[in-house]
């Protein structure tokens, strides 16, 4: 779908429930969601404690909840290494990494208009 | 800024407070914000009542609050025609229309991964 086709597409009476934009924006819902994705994009992979340190003000409960939801949505993957002590790392899936294109458009807009 | 430059940019330790992505995502905060922008993009310009009809479940207070915030942020413009009865129309500013590029990336992502 080109940008022009997209413009045409939204002019038609697309019901909001079927709209790919609404559905995707729902994935960003949650105070910390976009920040977690952003930090994982920057760092490639992070342990829980490392991620927490980067997110000023987040609690353990909020971070584990956000990670759980992102895992269920297929955006974040959790990898457990059977070492002692147990090592768990979080990283973006292919879908999560592809979100960088959305962030790029958002950044360009912010640069131009904020 | 190209996409490659953007990738480089975020790898550096950009503090989240100065990040154009965070700042722009804040503009989308609010349950109805993105839906209002989307409906105004589709219809070009709408009166309060027309807009309300398109947003199932929104109250007058929520809609006028959302419009007020979007006006303050320079995304929506309110035009008053001095007719009897008074006619007021809402439309997107240039900055608001440029948000369609963000929606386009969001839609492409949704098509690919949802």
Give an account of the 3D structure:
Chains A, B: Keywords: DNA-binding, Transcription, Transcription regulation. Chains A, B: Residues 19-114 form the HTH hxlR-type domain. Chains A, B: InterPro entries: HTH_HxlR, WH-like_DNA-bd_sf, WH_DNA-bd_sf. Chains A, B: One of its GO terms (molecular function) is DNA binding. 2 copies of one chain form a homodimer. Chain A is an alpha+beta fold. In chain A, 59% of the residues lie in helices and 13% in strands. The first copy, chain A, is built from 7 helices and 3 strands, in the order αααβααββαα. A 3-stranded antiparallel sheet of chain A has the order 1-3-2. Chain A is elongated. Chain A starts with a helix and ends with a helix. The interface between A and B is large, with 41 and 41 residues.
Oligomeric state: homodimer
Overall spatial form of chain A? elongated
Across the major sheet of chain A, the strand order is 1-3-2
How many individual β-strands of chain A?
3
Strand/helix succession of chain A: HHHEHHEEHH
What does the radius of gyration of chain A come to?
17 Å
Strand content of chain A: 5-15%
Largest interface: A-B, 41 and 41 residues
- The computed structural class of chain A is alpha+beta
- What is the straight-line distance between the termini of chain A? 28 Å
Tally of alpha and pi helices of chain A: 7
Helix content of chain A: 55-70%
Q: Average pLDDT value of chain A? A: 88
Q: What does the largest sheet of chain A look like?
A: 3 strands, antiparallel
Residue stretches of chain A low in confidence (pLDDT < 50, at least 5 long) are: none
């Amino acid at each position: 779908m080109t940008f022009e086709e997209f413009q045409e597409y939204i002019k038609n009476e697309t019901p909001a429930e079927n709209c790919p934009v609404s559905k995707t924006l729902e994935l960003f819902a949650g105070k910390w969601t976009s920040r977690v994705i952003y930090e994982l994009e920057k760092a490639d992979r992070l342990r829980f404690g490392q991620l927490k340190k980067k997110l000023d003000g987040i609690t353990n409960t909020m971070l584990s909840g956000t990670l759980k939801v992102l895992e269920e949505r297929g955006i974040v993957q959790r990898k457990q290494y059977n070492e002692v002590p147990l090592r768990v790392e979080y990283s973006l899936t292919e879908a999560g990494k592809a979100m960088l294109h959305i962030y790029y458009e958002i950044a360009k807009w912010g640069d131009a208009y904020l």
